[in-house]
Batch of 2 targets.
Target 1
Amino acid sequence: MGAYYDDAVVKELTDSIVARGESLLQIFREHDDEREQATFLHRQAGPMPFDTIIDAGCGTGAMARHWHAVDPNLKFKLLNIGAAQLAHADPDMEQSVGDIEAMPYPPACANGVVFSYVLGHCDLDKALSEAWRVLRPGGWIFIYDMATMEQRIRVLNYDIRPARDLFKAIRRQGFHCPKAWINAGKSMSKVCIGECGSLDQLKTLLEGAYSISLKFHKPTGEAHEC
Ligand SMILES: C[S@@+](CC[C@H](N)C(=O)[O-])C[C@H]1O[C@@H](n2cnc3c(N)ncnc32)[C@H](O)[C@@H]1O
């Protein structure tokens, strides 16, 4: 949970970030405009017709809000470790305060789980095993995050893991049928730049890290499904 331990501090920081016009909490971006960024990720994560999606570590709920605007058939369960950021989310969406390592949901209640810039805050195997538990057969996980080629690095209190470790952990759970993208990551969050001084400083800290998207499926049990 780390940096997100103190809800009052998170509230103050998040309120000021939102007041500056930012609501996606993602370091690397493919687009400066948040709607375009979220739409880009919606395209990567699709298809997801009529799906119920858990946004695990949902931040301000901005990604769910944008995805729902693109596709009103999607239903969301927003999950965050604290209440402060959920206060910015769409009040019509189901919201829960809880840990992605022990999700407050029954088994097989969702078609998809999104992990966007959150797995570096937690135990990878625990979060993925929870995703497996809450997904119906045929369900999917979509991960948008940073990865490295070689060594694990820790930046701004966040673990950035080698891509091969992510793949191994995901496969260890039983997920299959991967789709993977190395993104351009050409834009960077102004929020994080603010926190660590300058864009150059941030780029130095993130040397060796790049932006990835991954989609994997939970098998349905039928043969030859990929
Ligand atoms: C960098 S932000 C990403 C927010 C959002 N997913 C996005 O893409 O804009 C990380 C989020 O994960 C949440 N978080 C961190 N650790 C968590 C945990 N163990 N369980 C649930 N949420 C967690 C934080 O509260 C924060 O909202």
Target 2
Amino acid sequence: MKIGDALSIGDIERLAKRRLPRVVYEGIASGVEDEHGLTRNEEEFRRYRLLPRHLVGVSQRDQSTSLFGHTYASPFGISPTGVAGVFRRDAELMLAQAAADANVPFVMSGASMVSIERVARINPANTWFQLYAARDAKISDDFLRRARDAGFGTLMLTVDNPVPPKRERDMRNGFRLPPKLAPLDLLEALRHLPWVFDYLRHGGMPVMETWAPYTTPGANAAEVARFFRTQSPSVQTWRDLDSFRRAWPGKLVIKGIMRPSDAMRCAEQGVDGIVISNHGGKALDRAPASIEILPRIKAAVGGRLALMLDSGVRRGSDIIVARCLGADFVFVGRATLYGVAAAGLAGAARALAILREEVDTNLGLIGCPRFDDLGRDFLLRDSEESAAPDGVPTIVEAI
Ligand SMILES: Cc1cc2nc3c(=O)[nH]c(=O)nc-3n(C[C@H](O)[C@H](O)[C@H](O)COP(=O)(O)O)c2cc1C
């Protein structure tokens, strides 16, 4: 199968799996501990069904969505995914380009291999910067300065990883920076020669350029990665959030919020938006799925800040379900990462196009031509008997 023949994110994942050595593929696919969170993310989406409204004019459909003063072509963007350069050299640039071409936001990870300055050359108007705050506050301050100078308007602070999560599959595989593969895994890697050649041709593991300026000049990839591990994760508190709010003039988004009370506090501290996220099942294994907790957070904060969500989105219909439950915007991590790993820019673009087409088709099939008009009355959940007829309060379970 070629990337142009991929019909679903599942197809794209299979292509990525074929191209990458097993251990590297699992670096994307894996979760933590027993990986319950990972499965829960997709299962919880599957608990919702869409109740179609028929005999409605749906020949023109519109999924464009405004957020922070920008009108995006679709209601979803690309979540930050660190160390993407291991999956494909310069993957961050390809993801940024695919997002710019599709007019959706790309969130550059603070653990990127490509520098802020190189990513900024693509399209800063579509790029947000995700920060993993450093233990040395001066480094975090400098990240903010660089992101601002680069022209990024939105800062996303990730808060769900204050201590290193227990990524057992990665630990068993030796998938870390720099990777340490067992002989059998090295042998397995030889079945994926295009990736191996590409990796070696560029000198092995790429340098984390974003962090390189803070280490010894001329430090190699392994040394920069080791330095990164001495700085991140770092414990942050509400007081730190206050400092970031004061220091960052643009939009401030907090990623990884799960409790309604934390969401309310974000609103009180002047945060512009939150991403409900369990890090795609890569942080706390017992965390709820984002889609499961979204209605409670919506009920708590209403429209006081932009409500975004990621974790487990694999279909356009997942994005529609999230909107019906009150999300203003949705992000995907693995979907586009598999795309770029499988086929570079074309793969990332294909993943975005598939999601866009699926949103469009589903809007037509459920009789809601405008994404903005979606609401709870289009939803039916596992435990329910039927949805509410028009005008009758919806019976989506109050969660
Ligand atoms: C390989 C990988 C690397 C990630 N790196 C980061 C990161 O650097 N910063 C961050 O905030 N989240 C990171 N995440 C989490 C994603 O931003 C996002 O929350 C998650 O992938 C969403 O779930 P999904 O993959 O099911 O779409 C990473 C996820 C993956 C799979």
